[in-house]
Amino acid sequence: MAATQKFVYSFTEGNKDLKDLLGGKGANLAEMTNLGLPVPPGFTLTTEACKVFLETGAEPASLKAEVSEHLDRLEQQMGKKLGQADDPLLVSVRSGAKFSMPGMMDTVLNIGLSDTSVVGLAAQSGNERFAWDSYRRLVQMFGKTVLGVDGELFEEALDEAKHAKGTANDLDLTAEDLKTLVATFKAIVARETGRDFPQDPREQMDLAIHAVFHSWNGDRARLYRRQERIPNDLGTAVNVCTMVFGNLGEDSGTGVAFTRDPSTGAPGVYGDYLSNAQGEDVVAGIRNTLQLAELEQLDKKSYDELMAIMHKLELHYRDLCDIEFTIERGKLWMLQTRIGKRTAAAAFRIAVQLVDQGLIDLDEALHRVTGGQLAQLMFPRFAPEATSKQIGRGLAASPGAAIGKVVFDSYTAVKWSRSGEKVILVRRETNPDDLDGMIAAEGILTSRGGKTSHAAVVARGMGKTCVCGAEELEVDTKRRKMTTAAGLVIEEGDIVSIDGGTGKVYLGEVPVLPSPVVEYFEGTLHAGADVQGGLVQAVHRIMSHADGRRRLAVRANADNADDANRARRYGAQGIGLCRTEHMFLGEERRKEVEHLILADNDKDRELALSTLLPLQKGDFLELFQAMDGLPVTVRLLDPPLHEFLPDITELSVRVALAEARKDPNENDLRLLQAVHKLHEANPMLGLRGVRLGLVIPGLFGMQVRAIAEAAAERKLAGGDPRPEVMIPLVGTVQELEIVREECERVLAEVAVSTGVQLDIKLGTMIELPRAAVTAGQIAEAAEFFSFGTNDLTQTVWGFSRDDVEASFFTAYLEKGIFGVSPFETIDRDGVGALVKHAVKEGRATRPDLKLGVCGEHGGDPDSVHFFHEAGLDYVSCSPFRIPVARLEAGRAAIETAGSDSR
Fold first, then answer.
1. 854 is catalytic
2. Which of 7, 66, 79, 626 has the fewest CB atoms inside 10 Å of its own CB, making it the most exposed?
3. Which residues of 127-198 form beta strands (DSSP E)?
4. Domains of the chain (ranges plus CATH)?
5. pLDDT at position 681, please?
C-alpha cells in the first residue's frame, strides 16, 4: 500500500465520475458542490479505506490523521467545533456505495451531541424540544447501528412515552418528555452493552465510521447485493456531512423529490415532504407525508428554488433524479442526488421522453432499459371491470398485479413461499430487516409511508408490486390481523389482491388480463396505440431500435405449430430447437413407440418405424408452414427410451394383480421385461441421444426421412422450408460421422423419389464437456453447433438439475457460493469457458460454422450478453422470452460498440 495513498476527499474535490472511489452519494455530493448548489460542507472516506478495513480488521494507518485534517478544515469553515459545549458542530455519518442500496447499510445522524452539548444546542437554537429530540434520535440510531442494541427496545420505549402522553404522534412529546426518553434510551444502552453511551464526539464519529464499514458485509446488504447482482468486493464509502436540521419547527422540514414520477415516468412534481422532521422519518414511513406540491403553500421560496435545482439536475444528469433535501428555517439544503430507481414502465417511457427532448439518443435509451424490465411489463394486470370487494386504497408505489396470502412478517413470508405459497407481505412500514420477506413476497402492502418510503423504493428496484400508505387499513402485526375502515378483519392466510398501478387493495383473488405489451407482441394492439400513457409506443420504438442494432439472431424453442406461430409473432427468426420427443407424448404415439421398443426382429421394427413416419412428417409439415422462409432446427430423438414406457412400479403392480387373477397380460409382461432391461441408475447419462440412433437401426433414418419428405412436399407447394437436422449428445466425431452417413443416404433417396433437391444442414448439439473440448474434430462432420447449455451445465458441474435445485441450491445461494443459479445465468468461468473454446476450435476447422445456443440460457439477459461476446450467431429460447432476448441482443451490440470505441 503506497504511503501517499489518499483516503479522504472534501466535497469540493470530487465529481460524479468518481463513484468507484467515492461511492454514489459522495460522488454526487461533490458534483452538486461543483455546480454551486447549496450542499452542507463535508468530506468522504473512500471505498479503498473500507476495503483495507474489511481485509485487515483495522483502518489504514493514515486514515485517522486524514480525517482529523478534514475535520479541522470543516470546523474552521463552520466556525465551531464538533460537539463543543456552547454551539456544537454536529455531523451525520452516512454510507454510500457505488450502486444505490437504499436502507441496506448504516447511517447515524446528530453525531456530536452529548449531555453537555445538548444544552448548548438548545440555547443556540432557542428550541429546547428540538435539541432533546435530536439527542434521543442520536442515542436510538447509534445504539442500534453502532452498538448493536435491538432496535425494538427503543421503539417500545418511544411507544410507551407516547401512550403515557395519550398521543400517537411523536411531535406531541415535550422537551421534558424527550429528556426522560433520552435517559431511558441511555439506560437501555448501558444495560444491553455494559457501557455508557459515549460522550466524546470524536469517539462517536470514529465508531460510526467503523459501523458503516462493517455494514457493507451485514446480512441485509449481502442479501440485497445477491438480489441485485452487485459485486461483493466494491466496499462502501463513508460521507461525513455537516448536519442541517429539518426538525427545528414548522418552518423546517425534510423531503425526497423525483424529477419525474418513478412509478409511471410522467413529468411533473413528485415527492414527499414532512414538516418538522429529519430525513430518516420520510424514508422510514413512520408518519404519512405531504405531497411535494403542498410545499409551495408552506414555503414558496424554498419550493421555487427546489424546482429550479431539480430542473438543473435533470438536464445535467440527463435522467430521472432522486433528490433528498432539508429546509432549515427557510433555508434549502441539498443532501443527496442520484439516478432514481424506477418501475419498468417508467424506464421505457422516460427513455423515449429523453430522446424526444434531445437529451439522449436511441442507443442510450436502449442502454437504459433491460430485458428484466421488459419481462415485468409482460406480467398480467387486473381486469378493470372486476367486481371483487375493495377494502382499501393507498399510493401506487410500484405497479403490477399481485395476489397472495397475507403474512405479517418476513420470516413467515420466506417460510410460506418456500412451501409454494404466494404471499403478500403486510406491514405498517417496512425497514431494511424486511428485505428477505420482500424478496419472497409477490407484493408488499403498507399502511404508512409514501412513494419515497423504504418499501416503495426497494420494491421499485426489485420490480415488485407495492402499495404504500393505505391509511384506512389498521395493521396489527403482533395479533397478525388487518382491520379495514368498515371493521372487516383480515387474518394471516386470507387472500388479498393488490394493484400497484392504482393503489387499490381487494379481498380475495381478482381476475387478471394479459398485459398490453403482450397484446402488442401478439399483434392485437398496433404500435401507435396510446395504451397506458404511451407505454406500448415506447416499447415499440426501443424494440425497433434494438432489432436494428443487434448482431445476434433470435430463434425459438418450439415443438408444434401453435408455439411456432406465437414465436413468429414475438419476432423469432426461426426455430433453434424442435424437440421431437415432445411429438411422441400422445397416447396413440406412445403405443407406437412401445411397439418399436418391444420389436425383437427387423420386420417388427420396420413396421413400427413405418407407422411413425407419416405422423412425424405431418408434424414437420405444420412447423415448416408456420416458419416458412426461416430456419427450423430439428433435434433427433434425445431422451432415454424408458420415458416412453409405463412407470415400473405401476406396471409391476398391474402384472402382479393379473397373475394373482391367473389372467396374465402377455403385452404387459413384455413391457415389464423391456422396462427392467432399459432401467438405468442415471438415465440422463445413459442410452439417449446419438446413442439411440446407433443402437436402434432405422430410428434416426425414419426421422430424417420425415423431415426431408415434409420439406419436399412443402417446396412443391410453393413454400420455402429451411430445415436443419441436429444430432444430440455427441461426444466424439466418430458417432457423428456414422449418423451423418446414414442421414446423407436418406436425403439422397428422398431427393430421387421426390425430384426435389434439398439443402439440409447437418449439425450437432454441444452439450458434453468432451464435445466442447474436441470441437475442432467434431466440426469436420458438423455444419453447425448448437450449445445445449442445460445439459452442458449439468455435466460440467456434476449436477442433476431436478435434484439439486430442491436440495442444496438455496444453501449455496445463501452462502454466496452462487450469486445466481448456473441454470438461470450461464457460468462464465466454467461452462462459458468451454463454450468459448468450442467456438474457437470449431471455427478454426470450419470458418463458416454456424453457432447457436438452445438451452434456456438463450433467453436470460446476462447470458445473451455472454453469447454475443463469444461470437455466436443466434440464441434460441421459449417463445415468451423472445422479446427479452431481442432487446438484450441489441443492448449487447451497443455496449460492445461503446467499449470498442473507448
1. yes
2. 79
3. none
4. 8-242 (3.30.1490.20), 253-339 (3.30.470.20), 380-514 (3.50.30.10), 550-640+680-893 (3.20.20.60)
5. 65
